[in-house]
Protein: Phospholipid-transporting ATPase
Organism: Cyanistes caeruleus
Amino acid sequence: GRGCEPEKCVGNDVVNDLWSLCRCCECLRCCGRREPRPRTVWLGHPEKRDQRYPRNVINNQKYNFFTFLPGVLFNQFKYFFNLYFLLLACSQFVVEMRLGALYTYWVPLGFVLAVTVIREAAEEIRCYMRDKEVNSQIYSKLTARGTVKVKSSNIQVGDLIIVEKNQRVPADMIFLRTSEKNGSCFLRTDQLDGETDWKLRLPVTCTQRLPTASDLLQIRSYVYAEEPNIDIHNFVGTFTREDSDPPVNESLSIENTLWASTVIASGKVESHGKLFLREYIGLFDLEVNCLTKILFGALVVVSLVMVALQHFAGRWYLQIIRFLLLFSNIIPISLRVNLDMGKIVYSWVIRRDSKIPGVLGNGVVFPSMVLLFPGTLTQNEMVFKRLHLGTVAYGLDSMDEVQSHIFSIYTQQPQEPPAVKGLSLATKVRRTMSSRVHEAVKAIALCHNVTPVYESNGVTDQAEAERHYEDSCRVYQASSPDEVALVQWTESVGLTLVGRDQSSVQLRSPGGHILNFTILQIFPFTYESKRMGIIVRDESTGEITFYMKGADVVMAGIVQYNDWLEEECGNMAREGLRVLVVAKKSLTEEQYQDFEARYVQAKLSVHDRSLKVATVIESLEMEMELLCLTGVEDQLQTDVRPTLETLRNAGIKVWMLTGDKLETATCTAKNAHLVTRTQDIHIFRLVTNRGEAHLELNAFRRKHDCALVISGDSLEVCLKYYEYEFMELACQCPAVVCCRCAPTQKAQIVRLLQERTGKLTCAVGDGGNDVSMIQEADCGVGVEGKEGKQASLAADFSITQFKHLGRLLMVHGRNSYKRSAALSQFVIHRSLCISTMQAVFSSVFYFASVPLYQGFLIIGYSTIYTMFPVFSLVLDKDVKSEVAMLYPELYKDLLKGRPLSYKTFLIWVLISIYQGSIIMYGALLLFESEFVHIVAISFTSLILTELLMVALTIQTWHWLMIVAELLSLSCYIASLVFLHEFIDVYFIATLSFLWKVTVITLVSCLPLYVLKYLRRRFSPPSYSKLTS
């Protein structure tokens, strides 16, 4: 198997015959903890396997049919408080501990569990349907009886699978043969490395030579593959054919493989992968857990005090348990359900927000401190912006001049290709501007790795389009979108790339002539060399030319001396353009033959092959003629700059973790204003050992207010030897850019940020390569776009554009946090009030463990009488969304945790104790004859106090809040008729009852209202200054 990340690939033509080797890393998951071993697999003979392999099944479910109920219950009761409520309910079966009807304990617990089970079941069904769709996709399998249809889930290691155009590659495969003429296939790997460029894949030479696909079953051959590992960029294997004489041995590399979950050829891409569903625990859940632990401590203390005041008389240990049961309301069982239902409301509100269409989320309550995102802030649409020839520069507005120069060159000499004249003149003679422009454009049109591909368009079929080089049917495929932009630009100015295979290139001139060039050598781009070169022979003249293009840092030492290169490169880079330097060198036949002999010899050497090859190529790369600079812009997504500005002003640190190369990442960071114009950028040198890392860290330590750019390799070395020092320095930077990051590294950085800073992280990603980072972070946001749905399926939120992130955090993130804070405070206040009354009641009646309210009163209090008004707080908001967006500084208050700090919690505890005591003592003072009157007065006052407190807290009224208040009051008044068992109905109708309840309610609420008014008058919160 190959790497853990599923990704997307795009191949080249109608049918590619591929042979499946193994499913991702699921072999590690399905086969227990066994060490992965190398494998030998026979072509077309799954039965000849040497070990047991897992099924080719995608499974995103947490449970199966048998483990669902036990699993859900275990996940609920592994939390201490749920287990605590279960034990409470079970204790009611013991007669000595029973305090009232069984349903008063079992109904609330049953409701909480029912909500959880239904929610989990819905999630499981959704996952099952999604997996079933992927696993049921049909593929063609090559067998001795011909091709048969097979489901994706039934594909075995060793099967020969034909993958057609627009089909997802169902498993990791070895590429055996293709129907494409040039014998290659392009893959699109945006789910692997986040780049929407193309990767070239080559079939096994031995099998590509076979006359037909069915011949694959006639040969005796096998593949030896290394053991599965997480390195997705390398593969070591061999292909052996035994029945030829002599036996054929061919080495296999990553170029001969295709990754799972990829799609052949262009078209709508569907990507599915292993999503690791997780239990989300945010800052808010952690804060609430802390507060409930404090409440549990208070519960134990109060119970012990009550028993101590009885002098531990009689069976005191039973009394402790009875008091624990009696005061169990201190910990609200409904808190978790209220918060979960709140999240459903938040996600509904987010979905209904017309300003951020297409957003999906689970309503996670989240103020984040560190934001991490991939470098994909761009649209991956390259636009050619600038051609610079040293003395003159052409921008978008003057491209017609370039076009006229090209036309003039080709129309002056229709009888012979113009290259002859330009090449045969001595280079020292100053050429005309037209010929200089022509040389530059021709170099750009020849020096690349782009392949034009022709597709039928309904009018013209493929073969005809290819024969006549039909413009409307042509699309360009290349391993870099930059190169496609360059070739599209040469087409727009008159020199069109119309054909290419492994050994030749065809250009079409403005006059319609086809210019033929033979490719003699090609030196592909590598991240080490930062340049690519090509040697071509012009078929019409026999002239041999070596063209080269690359980054300015390496090309400056290769081209002839000039005084403008460095300055102009700097100017173009500051504009956010990706700059390439283009140069050429004319070679004589003797020079080329000499080079070729040395080059072939170097390629055959066994020791230091790459070094010897590089040395030979470098012998050509001297004193080259500088032709031009090209500037290509990768356009940013809309509103990226203001969004990042908003996040910075909100006090959120921004890190960019990208798979892009260093120059691209730096360019994007500047373009997006992640790094401001006044800030310096410290580019961390490539380090390979401890000593180098130490020196580079010291150099970085001396810089202040400086953005850091570091590559994945250097980062790994720093984290290995100086993890603490590096993280300390990096966290002080205003912005950090990590380039060439592997998916596992992204997740590692998130984990380190959480551990080292204790801050909360929000990861934003848009490709399968970001899944591990999204799942490691406290909150994951997936951007749905060109790179598929991989990231959005794994995330807590799914957005359609990066700019929506600002509103998601500033408006919805802030509102949901503040609302949940108010909601949890009220649920705790509601429970503490009734517990305080119980404590006062017990202490007045000689510390007896007798419940004040029984049966339906205790259930009704926390459900139909107060639930709706308290829950309606999820609709409250302190400022309008426009204000929250305009002043992102408001978000900073959340980062300090003020809405749910220990201070606010303590204030609410004191309010609860005050109100509970006033209501209980008031009822005891004012009642006249019967005990049942105490219950009527105190319970009615308690309900009214709770409704009034909600009304006092609301900042922006919503019509549903008014409905909730009136509904609760109506429910209470209507239910009094049925509660004659607990309340004297005739007493309620008297004037005496009404004035007593009114006085108690006013005494419990009025002082708090006065205090609140004075506080808002003399020490208003920051948001009220903006709303006034």
The longest strand covers residues 625-636. The two ends are 63 Å apart (CA to CA). Residues 1-33, 265-280, 414-430 have pLDDT under 50 and may be disordered.
